[in-house]
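Annex B.
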Amino acid sequence: MPHRVANFFRSSTHSLEHQVSGFTKKSASNTRRRNSPTPGRRGGRSELLTAYPSSEDDIVEDALVNAPPYSPRVKMGDSRTNSLSSDSPKEKDHGHHHRLSFPSMHFGRSSKEHHVTAPANLSWKLESPPIVMYGSPETSSGALLSGQLFLNIREETLEVESLIATLSIRVTQKKPFANHCVDCSSQLTEIKKWCLLEHPLAMTKGQHSFPFSVLLEGHLPATMDTPLVSISYEFKAEAMPKSASSPLLPIRFEKSLDVKRSLPASETPHHSVRVFPPTNIKASAHYPHVIHPIGSYTLALRLDGIARLNTRVQTIEYWKLKKLTWRLEETIKTVAPACGRHSPRIGETVDDQQQKKGIVRSDTRVIGEKTLFSGWKSNYTSATDSIVELELEYNLSKHARSACDTKSQDGTEVSHQLMVEMVVSQEWAPVNKPSLVTHTGVGRILRMHFGTILTERGGIGISWDNEAPPIYQDVPPSPPAYSQETVMGGDASIAEIIEPLDGITGGTPFHRPNSTTPDGYRRASSEGR
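LDB19 N-terminal domain-containing protein: predicted structure tokens.
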């Protein structure tokens, strides 16, 4: 048995050496045949077919190129090395598969594309304070926007044909009248347009400023981003350069403005009373009517009538507070208008025309919520003096993307409310033994809704038309009054001060002696003449 295994391995080794030797001889013959082509077979196709060797040639040549400098200690390697050493270096190089490189070719982008530096750029600087409209849309006087637009020329000289800036308001409907319609989903209204450079002008290298200003009317809506609609203010500027050698692309500048609205807040908290029949529970709440996105606020709540004496069975019935949940809700209403293609046509009924003018969209979401199971004070001493008092703090969630209260002319309306939900359960106890409390299994849910206004903080709280001019220290509010003595120099008249005309023609200047006039002044004036 052992001699059969030895014969098997010996025969496998000889067959492998024979195959490698055959491959080497075949490769050498193919190489010699390629080096001496026949004259009659000249063509592109024959050359392409014979330009690449077979896979066996690649294996042999790769083994030769990547072989280490020392010779391996294998028996079958001797015949392989001898067969390969018979080939010339030219044949080895010709049979090897070279990698083709094209450094000038870029398949990702065309080589002709270059990042051309613009000859100029645009920037701006706002000089007005943050844009805040004070008061409701009906009473607000608007807000001022002023600043400077800078054109930075990088070349020595650049001719600019025109410089135009526009301020627009964009309303984007996220649930438009017609799906996949660009005109239905976005409406752009131009507020102001400035032609800062009406005729071509050659400008030198440096920074050139162009002032601009506009009054945003008070009825305009504030910036918002809600699940139904978003409102943004876009400022765009475009400069058109001119070049005789090659056409230049226009220089554009785009920025978005943040417009806010601040509603006045009352100094005293709002008071609300609610009764929940058929029970005798009465809830009294004190809360601020106006809140802001940042900050926490307190609601003081008191429950009366939570105990009742049942004289028929001599028991006291209690309503005990088990759970309280407060929630800030935001309600958004908007009208998705139809574009020109989807607007009502002539001949349709009135109902169809009214329906095609726009679709009313509404959505309600929670922007703050919390549940309490304790934290209130309760007193159940008697049927008449039993009360529950608590003060809860509420605010907006940390990551809530809320919108302030607004009501615009296009039908967009945002409102907020604070909802308080209480769960109470009924218990009873004997009059003479109030500690023996028994649950009746009866419960009620008490809900209260408080109207709340969410608005931005007003800052100084003064609109642009109510601002007073600055008053500096040690400066009176009006110009100083100049007396006659100060102007005329005491008792001197105008004739004593004004120099006659013959003094200009070379004559002697006429000065009436005056004790109040210094000699140095007369000498200096005469020498100067």
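The chain has four domains: 2-29+50-95, 120-262, 270-454, 485-528. The longest strand covers residues 143-173. Further annotation is deferred to the next reporting cycle.
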